[in-house]
Design brief:
Number of strands: 4
Shape: globular
Order of helices and strands: HHEHHHEHEHE
Structural class: alpha+beta
Number of helices: 7
Length: about 190
């Protein structure tokens, strides 16, 4: 697959087949992706690969916090505090299209909640990727990280696999760090279903 085709065909997949993804395949994808550019070749990416058992544990723990009213405490702000146009309209249209595709109406909050909670289980993907960065690094390294994330998605597509980047996985970083035995010196950027 040529690079332009890959760019146009990449999409966020939210339904996965029950097929295993080998350790070797994940290694190839991450090895391909590491060629992303980074300022002075810092390569700030740190990736934790998790399988079904850990995915289940993380999802259960995050949902337990949400259901008891614990507010998200992400390491950074992903969305604006006040939505303005044209972003407000784009967000609304995207949400409406997604829930329409899932046959969920505005008057079905429990179905909406269940659909959202699928995020925390990586949409049923066999592999979850969690992306961390040294908390001492600044915005330039986050820009570099964005290029790496895109490379991961394109490399996965090149290897015949689908992905979905997930900011939702960064909503409760302390839960993720605790379950993975990681220190607070690492900021959780996002997850990715693979």
């Amino acid at each position: 697959m040529d690079v332009l085709t890959a760019i146009r065909q990449r999409q966020s997949t939210r339904a996965f087949l029950d097929k295993p993804v080998t350790h070797e395949m994940v290694t190839h994808i991450l090895d391909d992706a590491r060629f992303a550019p980074s300022g002075v070749n810092t390569q700030p990416w740190q990736v934790v690969v998790v399988g079904r058992d850990t995915i289940q544990t993380l999802g259960d723990a995050i949902i337990a916090q949400r259901d008891t009213g614990v507010e998200p405490n992400a390491d950074y702000s992903y969305y604006p505090t006040e939505w303005i146009e044209p972003y407000k309209g784009r967000r609304l249209r995207s949400g409406l299209a997604m829930y329409k595709a899932l046959d969920i109406g505005r008057d079905e909050p429990e179905k909406r909640k269940a659909a959202w909670y699928r995020n925390y289980y990586f949409f049923g993907a066999p592999i979850g990727l969690l992306f961390f960065i040294d908390a001492r690094l600044n915005q330039g390294s986050w820009l570099d990280y964005g290029m790496f994330l895109e490379n991961v998605m394109l490399a996965a597509l090149g290897h015949g696999l689908s992905t979905c980047p997930q900011a939702a996985m960064a909503e409760y970083p302390d839960i993720v760090r605790d379950r993975l035995g990681m220190g607070r010196d690492r900021s959780l950027i996002c997850g990715m279903a693979l």
